[in-house]
Amino acid sequence: MVSKKKIVLVILLIIIAAIAAMGINFYSNYQQGKSSFSGTHNILVLCTDPTEPRAGVGAVDMAFIIQLNNGKLGEVTPVYPGGLYDPSMNPPADLRSEGVDHWYLHDSLWTSSLEEGTQRAQQIVKYSTGTSTDIVVVVTPDAIDAVINAVGPVYSNGQEVTSDSLSFLRNDQDENGATRGDAIEGLADGIINATRSSGKKVELIGVLTDQYAKGNIQIVPGDAFQKLISYAGISNIID
After folding, report:
1. How far is CA 117 from CA 108, 132, 144, in A?
2. Which element (helix H / strand E) includes 208?
3. Domains of the chain: which residue ranges?
4. What distance in Å separates the CA atoms of residue 116 and residue 114, rounded to the nearest whole number?
5. Within 13 Å of residue 179, how many CA atoms lie on the same side as its CB?
6. Secondary structure (3-state) at 139
């Protein structure tokens, strides 16, 4: 019988091969990631809703600050976009035409430039929370659905997530009276708990790599993904 340890090793080798297929030098990126992400770092995760029309990737429904300690998952802090803005930033005319007087975190990705949008988001979050972030991860509902399928079953507020994430969130609001922020935070907690309890960290790394390749996960700066997944992925597997 093949041991569980050997199975994990095979899966890990497949992931490394997939990364190599993307033209990434795994060992080099692990070393660079170790240099870049050793110690404590903060990652800003922006959960977007692409169904709201705009030039950018979507409205920011919810945000989280994820702390990494030597590549390992630390504290996860929810950041509710509603009402958060930096008064030094002025929204463009087309956003003002929507009746908006401030450039809120919800609309930080309004324009087509992802880099400019994530910089705005970082600035707003720093002004509102006092926390600086190193990189920004932008995720779509498709990426969240893939993660749920990989680490599930996932439970949010006692309910198993059996539909796509957007439908589940809308149902949680309509039938349970949850706010958008509460619904997303509950789902995020469920995903984190499922990942920790299921032992499917290797599977999660594979899904994240796949979703990144499909454009459902975007990271600024762009070269941070390879370094982060190479270093943080290995660090969490051997934990």
Report:
1. 5, 16, 21
2. helix 201-213
3. 4-237
4. 6
5. 8
6. strand
**In angstroms, what CA-CA distances link 124 with 63, 90, 227?**
11, 12, 26
Question: Which of these, 60, 227, 49, lies nearest to 135 by C-alpha position?
Answer: 227
Please report how the helices 4-21 and 26-37 are oriented relative to each other, as an axis angle in degrees rounded to 10.
100
- State the DSSP code for 119: H
Tell me if 105 sits within 8 A of 80, measured CB to CB: no
Q: What is d(CA 121, CA 132) in angstroms, rounded to the nearest whole number? A: 11
How many C-beta atoms surround the C-beta of residue 165 within 10 A? Answer: 24
143-175 confidence digits (pLDDT tens): 888 988 888 788 887 888 876 887 887 777 777
| CATH code that applies to domain 4-237 | 3.40.630
- pTM assigned to the model: 0.74
Alpha carbons 3 and 87: distance in angstroms, whole number: 58
Q: Which two tokens stand for residue 82?
A: 């509603």
Q: What is the mean pLDDT of residues 95-108?
A: 91
Residue pair 227/36 in contact by the 8 Å Cβ criterion = yes
- Cα–Cα distance, 161 to 151 (Å, whole number): 12
Percent of the chain surpassing pLDDT 90: 18
Per-residue pLDDT reduced to its tens digit, 198-238: 777 777 778 877 888 888 888 888 776 666 666 665 555 44
> Token digits for 149?
């399928």
Q: Give CA–CA dist 234/239, Å, rounded.
A: 9
The answer to whether 142 touches 218, Cβ cutoff 8 Å, is no
Tokens found for residue 116: 């400019």
